[in-house]
Amino acid sequence: MAAEIFDFDTLTDRRSTYASKWEIGEGELPMWIADMDFKAAPAIRAALQRRLDNGIFGYTEIPDVWYEAYMGWWKTRHHLAIQKESLVFCTGVIPAISTAVRKLTTPAENVLILTPVYNIFYNSILNNGRRVLESQLICEDGAYRIDWADFEEKLADPQTSLMIFCNPHNPVGKIWDKETLQKIGALCEKYGVTVISDEIHCDITDPGKEYVPFASASETCARISVTCIAPTKCFNLAGLQTAAVMVPDPFLRHKMWRGLNTDEVAEPNAFAIDAATAAFNEGGPWLDAMRAYTKKNKDIVRSAVKRDLPQLCITDSEATYLLWIDCGAAIDAAGLKDSRELAAALRKKTGLILSDGCQYGPGGERFLRMNTACPRSVLEDGLARFIRGMSAL
């Protein structure tokens, strides 16, 4: 199918739908929370309409077609053969991560993360009485890499029992290569650390780019890991609460299965199965068109910032529809403390809402995160506000 048949330009009013992203003031523009302002793929909406027309929304089983949809998608798209028995349904990636923290660690143990990273990881760790152990990524000339000496030192701490890994990495948009994944797996095995790999952004790569599933990098990586996967981020279905964990090792899988069931997050709602199977079986053309559209959006922002705000630097990235913008020079020039104050000043002056980098941990204090998954008219409005506000500062 040609990308042109999908409409990403029409703005849908979300203010009347209780959308978290749009519960804001009049005249404000949200480019923060990582969901899209695009309607879901036509095939998904058609599947949900068929389910809706049935009119009865009782308890739901997990059928073979659900397993087959995941297995087919990962084999075709990501060259990973997943065994049916490795898959376990769950209501979301974050519920699965929180379950893993509770089931695979004990109170006061360390959970290692690579910062700056998705802020909700902190919630899953701290809310469950565990300790956050941060290994800050090294950023050089707009590109990120792991500080291997620091990483291994923190893995070697006997109190470190779990690592939550983001692949591709949010917010910096990095696709981790196979060699890096293999090294992470080898070091984690050496120190007895289990890896929870959050791969929810895996299908939002720039056209022509592919991510590498952590479990595919080596037998070691597969054996010591729980991979969290879902159609929710790439197909904009977060509110339907449909996801899975993929756990090749049977003993580790049993622990996760028990944990998910104990936490009551292992049963689908009435729409979860239909949405996921339609996404993976029929949503590919829409996804590819969306990737191309958001890549163009990212390019538009990059060009405008380079032209009008040359003191800023946008991080090199190949994944997600998010941009990670180094605003350190502007923060210093304006006499602000950090990106939290910068984001507040931008919102007050222009109504534009961006995510401040402070919430993503060490290394994020001088950055803002911008969500570009929106119609081009919205992007242009947000970009104009951003340039106007930054220039005024």
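(the above was protein one; protein two follows)
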Amino acid sequence: MTGPETLDVARDAIWTIVIVSSPPLVVGLVVGVIVSLFQALTQIQEQTLIYVPKILAIFATMLVALPFMADSLHAHMMRISSRIIGG
């Protein structure tokens, strides 16, 4: 395997990680901002209030996005396998 091929595989792996991890990260960010705004508006200063809604939202997102995430990882593995087989 040459240097450019190694960089291509690494770039593809990093891009796959970004694509697979983005749905839960975006939902966690949005829920965090909404809960923070709610805390600021109601002047509730409980530090642990943000964790339960975030965990529930990320869990629900994982259930919904799991087929997409699995397909992305499967496609990445097939690309890696074809490179291994192709030499």
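Reviewer note on protein two: Residues 3-86 form one domain.
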